[in-house]
Recover the amino acids of this structure.
């Protein structure tokens, strides 16, 4: 019996020294990388394609009803996303005014980015001056003018960034203000449906939502 007790007493310190196996930390989820895509854009008044940039240019109409604006359908996303687009002033080019030295124009245009419920997410604005064709951002093909160019053309460029909430998958662009000095005079009143500015290069940066199986 004493021998058995001695063996047990000798084994006790060894058992006390043994530590439980350490648990491996749980693997951290790999963050979904950002993706940039061209969303679906429903343009109520498409101007045409740029001859230099090969971009699609779209009029931004004035108004308060999101359904009457440029409607942008965004891909499903996790968390907030970033809507990015270029905003341009809307100039009507006249070769006759150029020859008479009366082509100067100045524009200040403001637009709103809204949810389809009419909630304002952000505003964007652009300022531009025109003195000669060199001041235009691009010319648009498919017109009846010299070189088959349209008279309407984008002037200036302001890149607009809009933070889009996670629950919003569709937004609208609508014109709000226009202060224009042209050979026709000074204009500040904007009627609903009247083009206020021009938009191009619409992109959406986001983290894609997981695919449901």
């Amino acid at each position: 019996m004493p021998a058995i007790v001695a063996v047990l007493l000798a084994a006790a310190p060894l058992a006390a020294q043994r530590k439980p196996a350490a648990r491996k930390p749980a693997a951290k989820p790999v963050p979904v990388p950002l993706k940039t895509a061209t969303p679906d854009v429903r343009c109520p008044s498409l101007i045409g394609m740029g001859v230099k940039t090969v971009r699609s240019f779209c009029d931004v109409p004035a108004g308060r009803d999101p359904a009457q604006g440029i409607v942008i359908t965004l891909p499903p996303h996790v968390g907030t996303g970033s809507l990015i687009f270029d905003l341009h002033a809307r100039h009507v080019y006249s070769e006759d005014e150029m020859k008479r030295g009366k082509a100067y124009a100045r524009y200040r245009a403001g637009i709103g980015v809204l949810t389809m419920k009419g909630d304002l997410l952000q505003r964007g604005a652009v300022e531009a001056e025109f003195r000669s064709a060199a001041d235009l951002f691009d010319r648009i093909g498919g017109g009846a003018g010299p070189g088959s160019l349209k008279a309407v053309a984008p002037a200036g460029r302001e890149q607009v960034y809009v933070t889009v909430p996670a629950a919003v998958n569709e937004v609208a662009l609508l014109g709000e203000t226009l202060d224009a000095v042209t050979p026709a005079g000074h204009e500040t009143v904007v009627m609903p449906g009247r083009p206020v500015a021009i938009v191009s290069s619409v992109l959406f940066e986001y983290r894609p939502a997981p695919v449901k199986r």
